[in-house]
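Input (Arsenate reductase family protein):
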Amino acid sequence: MEIWINPACSKCQAATTALDEAGATYTVRRYLDDPPTAEELEAVLTRLNLAPWHVARMNEPAAKAVAALPKDEAHRPHWIAALIANPILIQRPILTTDDGTTAIARDPETLTRLLGP
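Output:
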């Protein structure tokens, strides 16, 4: 299991606490220090069944980099490049289970679903 986090984020802190309490074995990726490659981000987006603009944190100051970009497939490479260049824009935490199931785990219900019984 792998979780992409920003350690300063309260949702990320809650997610890692829940994983610890569940006794889960996981790897932490501090994606601000170790940004995903375009291929890694595309793979996560495919597993999430989302487009890059769906995972963009538009309330961040760095969102100026994508604010004017159309949300369409023609501009997808530009969105990916902007998210890689400004990883703070990527929604968090993103949790991928060992079977490849991936979710943006911002709420306890999603974490519970991913961790199973």
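The first strand starts at residue 2 and ends at 5.
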